[in-house]
Predict the 3D structure of the following.
Amino acid sequence: MARWWLSEARRAARRSAGALALALAGVSLPAAAQSTPVPGLYYGEWNDEANRDEDAKPSQFSLINYFFTRVSVQNQVGDPAGLRGVSLGPIGMPAGSAVRAEPGLSAYFIEQRWIPVMEYSPHFVDGLASFRAQFEIDYMWGRSANALQQNEGGGFNADQVNIQTKNVNVALYPTRKPRELTLLVGTQPVYDNVYDPTRTPLSDITRTGYKMSFLGSDATGISLFSGYKGLAKLSLMPLGTAQADKGTRNDPRLKYIWLITGDYVYPVRPNTNVGLSLWFLNDQTKGDAYAFEGLVKSGPSSTGLNTFTGTARFDIARPTGNVFWAGANFNHNIDFRTGRFGASGFVMYNGGKYVSDDPERSALAELNISGVSANLELMYQWGRGPADMLTLEGMYTTGDDDLSDSRYTGAFTLNQYGLPGAVWFNHKMLILFPFTSTVNNYTGAVTDISNQGYGMRAAIATAAWDMVPNKLNLKLGVGTATSDAAPVRWTPEVERGRYIGTEVNAELRYHIRYLMTAGLHAGYLFRGSFYDGSPTIRTNPFSVFTTFTWYAF
Amino acid sequence: MSTSRAFTALLLAAGLSSAGCVRSYAHQPALSFQDLDYTSEGSKQPWPVKRIPLPRTANQYGMAVVPQMAYVDLPGSGPDAKAVVFIHGLGSYLKFWRAQLDAFQQQGYRVIAVDLPGYGKSDKPGTFPYTMEAMADAVLELVDGLGLDKPVLAGHSMGGQTSLSFAIRYPESLSGLVLASPAGFEKFSWREKEWFARAMSSEFIKSAPEASIWGSVRQANFMHWRPELEWLIEERVRLAKSPEFDAYAYANVRTVRGLSHNDFVRDNLHRVTVPTVIIYGTDDRLIPSPFLHGGEARGIMEYGASHIPGAKLVALEGCGHTVQLDCTERFNEAAFAFVRDAAAGRIEVPSAPAKEEAPRPESPPGPASEPLTPESLPPPTPGQEGEPTPGVLPQP
């Protein structure tokens, strides 16, 4: 009995002590900012100098979620069968997604995308490295997208294997300061500007360098980023492989498409940067590498890729060759940090040569490439904040009057190798150029700046107003485009003009929270003579979207 | 268009845009906080900088070492001149009152401008609490130490919240409040406070590039930038190279937490018993928080004015957050008129109404608004410069 009492008393005492400790801890919370003074010499002074107890420490593990969903109603109707739910490419194409716009024909669909980005930087490696992985799960509601297996993940039964591995890479930081030096190894985003994609907001990526109009996708390889006296990037990527000579020469070795890019940007003044680029591509795959495994081959000889990406199609068989790009770009005050006027732009020259490995059976024995692209955007902050903005942008690419000859004089983008490999992102159009907030419906009048090889002259003007600062933004836009060269007729009896069309659009965005946005977007394209005689573009395209975007971190 | 024409167009555009280029201070030598140029704007006469130890505050908050606070003391027109104590905001120092100190002295007032602990030429002890209450106690110790008789407190942004904490807790020790774009009127949820704690790090502040400093200083605070304000950029860029900058950056981190760690000021606005004027810019880009809430400053300031008995609200159309430098003439005009009437006892303060449960303002509330980060964009995760770009490209 006594022992029982004693044990109960001990238990009660222990509970009381615990409660007291908790209470003291609670009471001391408001004073948590202070350190308990330590008696004796020197400690106090040292603590005042060295105490950083409340500094935010970098986390070892972080997860960033990108979630996007879009409801679309439009009369641009693509055939999603080929790419299992995905529609890509210019309207009017007879093949590929074969996007049409015909009277009385409209479609609606709902898309969804989730991209988790995981970053692990164990303290054990003391700031020398980070591991990142990025996956992508896409659906079209009610249907599968980008999927294998028998169940349709976006439909009844779900349970679908449809996780795409976007990026898996390790970043090494030899100086422990990523801004100074970063070596990025593995599958990574590749963009046509100098910035480290793992540490740079998308908005900066899309408004600088070549604005993703030449290169914007993912690839596996190695990149070096330096912040020594300006920003520099050196990148080496194999874009594809094929056993190009296995059937013809009994040579089982893999042949590669190599891309080497070098970019340098010098900050001439704060927020004013000038850059130079030199890129080189070598393709030894003879057209046997795939842009979309098992379905669409890559390179200038691909018979299917151009219908999905809007590039030029070349009648050359089993090509090998080189392409190089030399460019200059600048951006000035694009965030309006130093004033009300901003600008950005680039000039890019692409040159090169492909030679057919089978000239006897090839229409073209060789293909010589020489084209120029130029872009300029002027921006003015007319109101209270940077979202009160007027923009005027022009894009020019040289065209080619005869795509069947051995000389190509247009822009040559990485859409010749990817599905897509380049996405001009910042044009602010919805139909004239494809609306870029999308999962798997990237269609519009011009989907590659080469405009199927015919070249392009485009002008875009927008006005935006933050009706409620940082909360509700209205943007109105108008854009017009013509081709630089006369396009080939759709039908022999109807002549085609160069005028592609003029788009008017309006977008209303409500920022629920920082990086959480709901949008309502509507656009209408007055189609031009470029579509005269088209059997599938017989009415003016329109699109209405709602979007929900959330970068959750 | 030929290649040469395209290049010509680009060069022309680059040349035109370079007309708006700003000067870089990145290659200039480090600047010590102690070497900050505390001088009159016009005459360049150095202001007399003094230091005062704060043993009482140190004792109150359990500090092992007594910190010293720097201040400028400009004599008034006579021994009985009313004193005006100027308190700066987050990330700044007493020089942010450059356009007021001499002007108020010329009006006959004794002018005291403080560098709060952690800022300017004051000590930056890691163990100071950096709450608005502790800051106010430091100011009170200065007021008592100098024997000031009920000064008027003028506080900008965080200094406004500090002044309010002072006025609520020590109503007998002041005679008026001039609040310039004050923090403290806004409601943080506990989750938002957690976000601040997670997002702010001294490393982030220390690593801000010069381009971002232009954003956090000019873009965030000013609607009427002038070349003569470039000292704000130069000093911030050069200070970042000084050995003391780490302690300053940590003080900023702690102060951000201090700003939001409780709602003492917001919940007790009805207890302010001295004449108060709130002067703010209608184009304030920091109040409410552009990241957490959005909206306009007007609703936030009206909330504060409606809860402080007898408070007068002065909206300066088209002005930004650092309203005293952005719209100096209009600010001084409003402040002079108020201080003159307050010092003469011509402003009646109604007795405090019964405290109501503070409703959320109609416009979206924002947190205590300051350049909370040296960037115009907060880091999504500590130590990162921007959100990594998830693939938002269409991909089959």
Summary: Confidence is low (pLDDT under 50) at residues 355-396 of chain B. Chain B has 14 helices and eight strands.
